[in-house]
Design goal:
This is Alpha/beta-hydrolase. Belongs to the polyketide transferase af380 family. This protein is α/β, with parallel strands linked by helices. The chain has one domain: Rossmann fold. The protein is built from nine helices and eight strands. Strands 1-2-4-3-5-6-7-8 form an eight-stranded mixed β-sheet, sandwiched between helices. Helix 2 crosses helix 3.
Length: 288
């Protein structure tokens, strides 16, 4: 297995940085799986291990990168760090496809997507709209912005809406953007993901998140093969919400129910279970 540092430009000239993992002793060009992480996550958070394992057993390359404004990746001069804009991240994912296709060592006709949580939603959205994608794996995918609003304490809804309105006025006046923590230690405090298990996993344009519905076009992914891996006890992306979306997808599609919660599939037996299914799926789809 070989790992190298890479960088590429987005359509709006932002530099994204990451790694390219490649299997050893492969003749010819590599199928390429593009791997992206969830809300506020960096590539060092388990994605290196995932790519290493995949490239150790499959004749494949894995492109892993940080979202714009996070980790090693840049953002535009007039954009703040750590801002989450779904449209930007989706466009960047399509630019990652273009970058992979431009490489002499990659088979441009064999590009797959792997996305977790928020990026699981991106993978669904891009696969439904970009036929360059030949296989897609969505792990605990974000399906609808409604789950953020529905997870909010009822007594905070009015103040939260008012906060967003004031944020628009503040930005229009030229002030720095306001910030909200992705997670908090006390679930009674305000955060994007107030669940206790969210804080346990993390060490840090909510309007954009709330109005983002990547599962709305899941029925357009076919005939691209889809694998959804759904945690049985997910209180963040919500198990029932993911299952409802899967039922709207058309064939060819597959589902694996993982036994744990939203953050438990990156270690132990559950990781091995997830990985084994992904390897088997990729052998039948991306690698043929």
């Amino acid at each position: 297995m070989d790992r190298s540092d890479v960088e590429f430009k987005t359509i709006d000239n932002v530099t994204l940085r990451g790694w390219m993992f490649k299997s050893a002793n492969v003749e010819g060009k590599y199928p390429c799986l593009i791997i992206t992480h969830g809300l506020t996550c960096l590539r060092e958070m388990c994605l290196d291990t995932l790519a290493e394992r995949l490239t150790s057993v499959l004749p494949v390359a894995c492109l892993v990168y940080d979202h714009r404004g996070y980790g090693a990746s840049d953002q535009k001069d007039n954009e703040p760090r750590n801002e989450i804009v779904p449209a930007h991240q989706n466009s960047d994912l399509q630019d990652a496809i273009t970058y992979a296709q431009s490489r002499e060592d990659v088979d441009a006709a064999k590009i797959g997507l792997w996305g977790y949580s928020y990026s699981g939603g991106h993978s669904l959205w891009v696969a439904a709209n970009d036929r360059r994608v030949k296989a897609v794996i969505a792990v605990a995918p974000f399906i609808t912005g409604d789950i953020i609003a529905n997870n909010m304490r009822a007594d905070l809804e009015d103040s939260f809406t008012e906060m967003l309105s004031q944020e628009r006025l503040s930005r229009a006046a030229g002030n720095e953007p306001g910030r909200m923590p992705a997670v908090v230690k006390n679930p009674l405090d305000t955060a994007v993901m107030p669940q206790v298990e969210s804080y346990a996993f993390f060490s840090a344009c909510l309007e954009g998140i709330l109005s983002y519905f990547p599962g709305s076009r899941i029925h357009k992914i076919g005939p691209t093969p889809l694998l959804m891996q759904v945690p049985k006890k997910d209180v963040v992306a919500i198990t029932d919400t993911m299952l409802e979306a899967y039922n709207r997808a058309v064939e060819p599609k597959e589902i694996q129910i993982l036994p744990g919660g939203h953050f438990t599939m990156f270690e132990g037996d559950e990781f091995e279970m997830m990985l084994a299914k992904e390897i088997e799926f990729l052998k039948r789809t991306l690698l043929v």
